[in-house]
Design a protein that fits this description.
Layout lengths: L5 E2 L1 H4 L21 H10 L16 E4 L7 E5 L2 E6 L2 E6 L5 E4 L12 E5 L4 E5 L5 E4 L7 E3 L1 H4 L8 E7 L2 E6 L2 E6 L4 E6 L13 E5 L2 E5 L5 E5 L12 E2 L13 E4 L3 E6 L2 E6 L6 E2 L9 E5 L2 E6 L2 E5 L5 E5 L4 E6 L4 E5 L3 E6 L4 E4 L12 E5 L2 E5 L3 E2 L3 E2 L6 E5 L3 E5 L14 E7 L4 E6 L4 E5 L2 E6 L15 E7 L5 E6 L5 E4 L6 E4 L6 E6 L5 E5 L4 E5 L11 E5 L13 E6 L5 E5 L2 E5 L17 E2 L2 E2 L6 E6 L5 E5 L2 E5 L6 E5 L11 E7 L4 E6 L2 E6 L13 E3 L11 E4 L6 E6 L4 E6 L4 E4 L12 E8 L7 E7 L5
Antiparallel strand pairs: 1-10, 2-60, 3-4, 4-5, 5-6, 7-8, 8-9, 9-10, 11-12, 12-13, 13-14, 15-16, 16-17, 17-18, 19-20, 20-21, 21-22, 23-24, 24-25, 25-26, 27-28, 28-29, 29-30, 31-32, 32-35, 33-34, 35-36, 37-38, 38-39, 39-40, 41-42, 42-43, 43-44, 45-46, 46-47, 47-48, 49-50, 50-51, 52-53, 54-55, ...
């Protein structure tokens, strides 16, 4: 099995544009800033305060968590750390960190192993599917070694450990050992049967000591072979080490080597062999089921829970304690680094006296149950529920991102109180008009936040928010109506629907028989569409009276013809589009209710399915989430990637997967769109990534029209955004003398221009105008911008 290195697909193909299939920018483009500000001042052009976009249209942005660094590699003065969010670097001189993920060209996130080969200067990163990423400098991109990943011989292929000798890289996997020739860029051999063990036994750890290679194989013990063996693929080349020369028999998952000794953990006992010669003896290290053991020069570092034990070259031992669960470490004579679940990467100064943290800002972890976005604010509820109804026992709190403040975690050590709403957050919603976010706990109640600060906390104990088992309420859905009343569905409670009245600031409860609610949206007529778990939908309307039950209306919608016509009673997603239609995502595709105003009338029609090439939209797929952008297009998240369809749903515009985009995972769990910026937040099973979309919400006027970037650099080949217009207007681009250059239709409140005239030619440098008006000539707006020459 031999294959030359594959260049990262993201560096070869880049990412597909949303319409014209030309390359996306891979990184956040920091266009204009100083230069554009000077030009704008010189031209007297206005630059709106809200124009601080985080990325150009079509660009992807990763929002990974780099807590819990799994393994470290030292490359000169820079440390490479792999984490569930991908890779990050820490420069011990400049103290700067940098994050790398699929957006920067990695094949995926959540690596399993890392190793730096000093001789070649290459760093190798392994993954659970057997893929290897290789880089000399991560800023220059990554190459892929896909031999193991492509193999059809084994179903489990995870890379567990990497080490090297000379020009050979030794790869411990779930099925054996693979030997890779670094100089020739090819796989030399695959060892699947070691000694008399069954074929395909996992190798958990590897070390090279003296003239031998040692493999730790769980309950099969430790096996040794001579590195110089003519054929390591022969079972006879390997002999068992455990049970001989002073080393006990037993389960082994950890091996380590320092400049002074080799170490092996058998059960909960550490054995050592000094200098690679003589017998194995019990090391003077307390018995413990250590989770990691690593040699760094003459130092040995061992990890258990929140404790790091260091054995110095002279035999002295000391302990370091952290708050989070330890996952990695590095030790030398001047510093100690630890990776844990709370502090990320910590640098210990002076043994155990004090420490400072260093890792890229981001979410606390990569869990995503719900998200809320608007006005450049972004909130994440991580993991509040387990299965359909049980609390997950998650105490991570929740987190948000604001452009000026960055990331912030709300937890019980800070703003949240254990006596109130502090854990198991599973729902959230954002109210754009008031810049307010509501966070719902799967066990405790609701929190209201404004500008990133908690303003109200409601529980069954301090309000009329109805309680269930043990004074708890599992908030299963949240939304805000046009009158700013907050609606919350709840399960395992006496009342399964609650509304917080903006008029009297009181929660009012409703009990709807037969409803087990998981999610809610409100249509343009005040009807509450509620996901009745496994039993279709329940539609409720209180007729504007919170305290009068006699005028309430309730209707159940199922798969039955004439009573809803859903494709499946298991509903996962609900969304109201810009025309007021209700889109429903089920276990078997999409259904659309085109006339929600008639839901309680005899004229109400069953749901229909959008049809593409003769088939119902996503008819065989589980639809997890639906979001509607400013152009009324639908973004649909499934277990097979992210789909974008036109407003009617009868034309597929894009299908993003891990194969053609930087998505962290094909399992899309949640979608939210910041309608003010067009950024599409995508919550996957492996974390959050975003795509800066073409469409934003239309404005009520075009007074705030602006162009981005402005000025447009001569060598800029991306799309130019004309933003802040009235919805769906025609944008006319002219010279200052009034000559029409191009006319473009806006998507919502934004039009995208490629910088070319109607004949397809790049426009000449100069000053241009973008002008908009609605069909009646009203809601007009104008923006001036500059096309620059290419710098010589």
């Amino acid at each position: 099995m031999a294959l030359a290195l594959q260049k990262s697909r993201y560096l070869k193909n880049k990412h597909m544009r949303m319409k014209d299939s030309r390359p996306y920018a891979l990184a956040i483009a920091h266009v204009w800033r100083e230069m554009s500000l000077l030009v704008l001042i010189g031209l007297g052009l206005a630059m709106p305060g809200f124009a601080q976009r985080i990325a150009p249209v079509g660009a992807w942005t990763a929002y990974p968590s780099h807590n819990s660094p799994k393994q470290l590699a030292k490359v000169g003065d820079v440390f490479f750390a792999i984490s569930p969010g991908g890779l990050f670097t820490y420069d011990r001189v400049t103290k700067k960190t940098k994050s790398y993920s699929t957006v920067e060209g990695m094949s995926q996130v959540d690596p399993t192993a890392i190793y730096h080969d000093e001789r070649s200067g290459k760093t190798f990163i392994g993954f659970s599917d057997g893929m290897l990423n290789v880089c000399t400098n991560p800023d220059d991109g990554f190459d892929f070694i896909s031999d193991i990943q492509r193999s059809l011989l084994f179903t489990t292929k995870s890379v567990n450990k990497l080490t090297s000798s000379g020009k050979f890289l030794y790869i411990a996997t779930e099925f054996g050992v693979v030997i890779y020739d670094i100089d020739q860029d090819e796989t030399r051999s695959t060892i699947t049967k070691i000694g008399d063990n069954p074929s395909g036994v996992a190798v958990r750890d590897l070390i090279l000591a003296g003239d031998s290679i040692y493999a730790a194989m769980d309950n099969h013990g430790i096996w040794r072979a001579a590195i110089a063996s003519t054929n390591l693929t022969l079972p006879s080349a390997w002999t068992e080490v455990t049970g001989h020369n002073g080393l006990s028999r037993g389960d082994c998952r950890l091996l380590a080597k320092t400049t002074l000794a080799s170490y092996a953990q058998i059960g909960d006992t550490i054995f050592q062999r000094n200098g690679g010669i003589g017998p194995w003896t019990m090391a003077p290290i307390p018995n413990q089921k250590w989770s990691a053991m690593t040699g760094w020069g003459g130092y040995l570092a061992l990890i258990y829970s929140t404790v790091l034990r260091v054995v110095e070259p002279n035999g002295t031992q000391y302990l370091a304690f952290v708050r989070g669960k330890l996952s990695s470490s590095y030790v030398d004579s001047s510093m100690v680094l630890t990776g844990d679940s709370v502090n990320g990467l910590s640098i210990w100064l002076g043994a155990t006296d004090s420490f400072e943290t260093a890792f890229p800002a981001g979410p606390y972890n990569n869990k995503v149950t719900a998200m809320a976005a608007g006005n450049q604010e972004f909130y994440v509820a991580p993991e509040g529920k387990a299965g359909s109804s049980a609390p997950a026992g998650n105490v991570d709190g929740f987190w948000n991102y604001r452009p000026q403040e960055g990331w912030h975690r709300f937890n019980y050590d800070d703003e949240l109180s254990r006596d109130s709403v502090w854990a198991e957050f599973a729902r959230c919603t954002y109210h754009v008009k008031d810049s307010v976010c509501y966070m719902g706990s799967w066990n405790h109640g609701v929190i209201r936040l404004k500008a990133g600060k908690i303003t109200h906390v409601w529980t069954p104990m301090n309000s009329k928010l109805n309680n269930g088992i043990g004074n708890s309420i599992r908030i299963s859905g949240l939304t805000v109506d046009k009158d700013e009343n907050v609606w919350a569905t709840g399960i395992v409670a006496d009342y399964n629907l609650n509304v917080f009245s903006s008029a009297d600031s009181i929660w009012h409860p409703y009990s709807i028989p037969g409803m087990y609610p998981i999610g809610i949206v409100i249509d343009d007529y005040g009807n509450k569409w509620i996901n009745n778990q496994g039993n279709g939908l329940t539609v409720f309307n209180e007729n504007g009276t919170f305290t009068v039950a006699t005028d309430d209306k309730v209707k159940n919608l199922t798969t039955e013809t004439g009573r809803g016509g859903l494709p499946n009673n298991t509903v996962y997603a609900l969304a109201k589009d810009l025309k007021g239609q209700i889109w429903v995502g089920t276990l078997e595709g999409i259904a659309v209710f085109a006339n929600p105003s008639a839901v309680f009338n005899a004229t109400f029609a069953d749901a229909s399915c959008p049809v593409i090439e003769g088939y119902c939209l996503l008819r065989d797929q589980k639809v997890n989430t639906i979001a509607v952008d400013g152009a009324n297009r639908k973004w649909i998240g499934t277990n097979n990637g992210l789909f974008l369809v036109n407003p009617q749903g009868n034309k597929l515009l894009q299908h993003f997967t891990t194969e053609n985009s930087p998505l962290f995972s094909d399992q899309i769990q949640e979608l939210q769109i910041d309608q003010q910026t067009g950024e599409i937040f995508i919550g996957t099973a492996s974390g959050i990534v975003s795509l800066m979309g073409e469409a934003i919400g239309g404005k009520s006027t075009s007074d705030s029209l602006y162009v981005y970037p402005n000025p447009v650099q001569g060598d800029y080949d991306g799309l130019i955004a004309i933003t802040g217009s009235f919805k769906d207007v025609e944008v006319k681009i002219t010279t200052v003398s009034g000559r029409l250059v191009r006319a473009i239709n806006a998507l919502g409140g934004q039009a995208m221009w490629d910088g070319k005239d109607t004949d397809g030619n790049r426009v000449t440098p100069g000053i241009y105008l973008a002008m908009v008006a609605d069909k009646e000539g009203k809601n007009a707006g104008i923006a001036k911008f500059v096309m620059l020459e290419i710098n010589p």
